[in-house]
Fold each of these.
Amino acid sequence: MQLMLWENRFNLGIETFDTHHMRLFDILNNAYNSVQLNDTQRINALLDELREYASYHFSAEEELMGRHSYLGLVGHANEHEEFLSHISVFQQSMKNNEPLYKVPIVVFLREWFINHVLVVDRGYVKLLDNDSKP
Ligand SMILES: [Fe+2]
């Protein structure tokens, strides 16, 4: 069973970032499957992978926003930071053997992803013309 299917509306039209988002999407789906299987070790490994890949992707976005003096950069970067710290909190909860956190982890990450890609990331896309897209 899949957590979500990729939809056209998730595409920003910036190929590099759309590819990053698809990869994050895959990691989320894998994490969802691991929750279904109650495979705590795998969930943890996937959260590590998510944190690592999300950090890489967020840095790329922030670099682009910085290069274009995007006024929303600080707020946007704060959202990124918040996401990463949520993952750490979830991992700590799992380490403490609090299994109730597993489903909320996936629900939270899914909601965050949808909101971020559909709303927050659109903020900088509007400012870029085709020539300045990476
Ligand atoms: Fe972003």
Amino acid sequence: MITQTPPLPLDYCMLRCKFGTAIEIGTYYGGWTRYLANSFENVVTFQTMQQHRLNDFAWTQHDHAGVQRVWADRMREQLPVQYQGPYDFNFLVDNIKDMDNVTCLLTNSPPRMPWYLRYDLCVIDITRSPDENLRQYMFWRDYANQDGILLIGIHCPADYDGWTITEEQFLSQITEPWHFVPDVIGRWICVNL
Ligand SMILES: C[S@@+](CC[C@H](N)C(=O)[O-])C[C@H]1O[C@@H](n2cnc3c(N)ncnc32)[C@H](O)[C@@H]1O
């Protein structure tokens, strides 16, 4: 199971939600997807096909200011050498094709198509951009079942990233009760819907 992010934030939310439908935004190579599929009846996972959003091995090593990313060593150890290059969609398929309860959508979130499926847990692990996380929150908050949970990795925006809103401005627009997930690597918020 190849995970870019240790699944501790998932463990936290899975102690607090029903195991009907999970929606995952940003699967990478299906690691969290399997984790979810082992417990939920139904999992829908999104993976972008847009080059500028797609994490590949090079991206996992350093950010655009040359700072080593926290998960660089983790990825070097987990990814077979032949996949330590451009993102490979065949490898994604290899990793998820045996999971009958998983639907993988190769498209950006939020989706352009009309959306009807509601979730018990939605996990968003795609960016440290407050702008982007706000855009995702604004869409996905409307599709939760009662007592659903939205988990968002907000990570640490850096000065040079140049977002149009700050993390505080993003957090101030969340209208439902939320809190930081305790005792995890990175910074995660759990929104109770
Ligand atoms: C940090 S990784 C997710 C890692 C995953 N939680 C794990 O540990 O295995 C983020 C993934 O989201 C994808 N992604 C980024 N923006 C996206 C978007 N708007 N819609 C769908 N996928 C996106 C990237 O290509 C990347 O594979």
